[in-house]
Each structure stands twice: as C-alpha cells, then as structure tokens.
Write a structure and sequence with these properties.
This protein has helices at about 1-15, 25-40, 45-85. With about 100 residues, it is mostly helical.
C-alpha cells in the first residue's frame, strides 16, 4: 500500500510544473491575414462548370439505375421472391 502511495505522489509531483499554453500576441492578426489572402484565390469558371456537369451526370446515372431496378423488381413481383425461396408449387397437385 505504501508503494502505491509513493507512485501516486510521484505522479502528482510530475504534474506540478504544468502551465497553461499562451498564444502569440500576433496570432489573431496572422489568422486574419491568412483568411483574407485565401479568400482572394478563385477557381476558374471552366472548372466549376466541369464539376457541375460531372455531378449532374452522376445524378442522372444513379437516377436511371434506380428506375431500372424498380421496374425489374416490379416485373418479378412475388414470383421472383417465391422462386428464390422455392415456394412455388411446380407440380399440378393442389394441397388445399
């Protein structure tokens, strides 16, 4: 028990020298300067149009695939599901 107390005291003593970090007095002005110069940089209109066209193409491709999958599943209906689980009565005997 005495050894545990010694370890705890040693750890607590190591924390005595910790002080709060202080920022440079010019930090705020440096940040504002970087923000103002970064805002001046612009992307070309051509790059914006290429990105917009790419997103639209991607959107329409995804939309068409969703429509195709919905049409395919609507055609299959319950026969596709029952066929997948072998629930279809394939012989002519009625079990009712």
């Amino acid at each position: 028990m005495e050894m545990d107390k010694e370890k705890i005291e040693k750890i607590m003593a190591s924390l005595d020298g910790i002080v709060q970090a202080k920022a440079s007095p010019f930090l705020y002005s440096k940040i504002l300067n970087r923000l103002s110069t970064a805002a001046a940089e612009r992307v070309s209109a051509r790059a914006v149009w290429i990105a917009a066209a790419s997103f639209m193409l991607l959107f329409f491709l995804n939309f068409s695939m969703v429509i195709r999958l919905k049409a395919k599943t609507a055609q299959e209906g319950t026969t596709g599901l029952s066929g997948a689980f072998n629930l279809m009565n394939e012989n002519s005997i009625n079990y009712n």
